[in-house]
Amino acid sequence: MFGFWKTWKALEARGIMGINRRNADYVLKYNKRSLYPIVDDKIITKERAIAAGIHVPEMYGVISTEKEIDKLDEIIAGRSDFVIKPAQGAGGDGILVVADRFEGRYRTVSGKIISHEEIEHQISSILTGLYSLGGHRDRALIEYRVVPDQIFKSISYEGVPDIRIIVLMGYPVMAMLRLPTRQSGGKANLHQGAIGVGVDLATGLTLRGTWLNNIITKHPDTTNAVDGVQLPNWDGFMKLAAGCYELCGLGYIGVDMVLDQEKGPLILELNARPGLNIQIANDCGLTLRTHAVEAHVEALAVAGVTQTPEERVKFAQEMFGHVPAVEG
């Protein structure tokens, strides 16, 4: 028991945040329950983002009832690729990614050939709440299929890599790149076997990777190094993440984004209860950073000053960057 206590005190000294502290000091403190639907429902998130001029994957259509499944042909008419996902899904479950059409059927991103009837069945399952939070009735969202930037080709297996940035009161505090693997079935989900790679807030340079709770330097499928990769348009990602504070009103969120090869940074979804594995990928605790932001916000409040998303990004990059930014 003494050994456990000693270990925990050592982790606490490094600023490692546990789930109880996350829930009590951040989720409950900064996230009003009444605002949860904004982030728990991907359609509401997307509609608010579009209204705010924030870039998201284009929404082709929404199916809310069994009767509306008849609208599927109209929604995907003329489109060879698209994504169908539950509005209130979690962990990537229930998502169907169609990459092409083939002889009157559809080819998924993994190469599987499926029929129109199978797609309708998947939508019906989504509507019943099979994949939703709490098992409640849900809606199906049909949207643009993100095509990952070519920079990820050597360090990702199928699927779409994404970038998560933890944001406290509009200030980015930590970032992670999530890379799909064969083990994760092409999904960027750490619990299913994707890789988490820390990202330097100042430069967008990848740090080290964690896979199945082990520290790694190479992708298990491509064998290429996952560290030392410069993510393009990093300031764009940081500003998008910071701006989500005004978008949803929640003070402690995880912002999940992707880099499309044509459209650049896009927001996929927001999370009101972001996981803590990001600390392992960054070899750094969240608590010291969140305390620094809280102290900064309190000092600004006393002075009667507020900061723009751009100013908040600048503060975060100066305070929490691992690697000095190169001037130029």
Automatic annotation (TrEMBL):
Gene Ontology biological process terms, A to Z: SOS response
Domain of life: Bacteria
Alphabetized SUPFAM superfamilies for the sequence: Glutathione synthetase ATP-binding domain-like
Keywords, alphabetical: ATP-binding, Ligase, Manganese, Nucleotide-binding
Pfam family, one: ATPgrasp_ST
Protein name (record): Alpha-L-glutamate ligase-like protein
Residue ranges of every copy of the ATP-grasp domain listed in the record: 46-301
GO molecular function: ATP binding; metal ion binding; ribosomal S6-glutamic acid ligase activity
Organism, scientific name: Pseudomonas karstica
Keyword check for Phosphoprotein: no
Any one Gene Ontology cellular component term annotated for this protein: cytoplasm
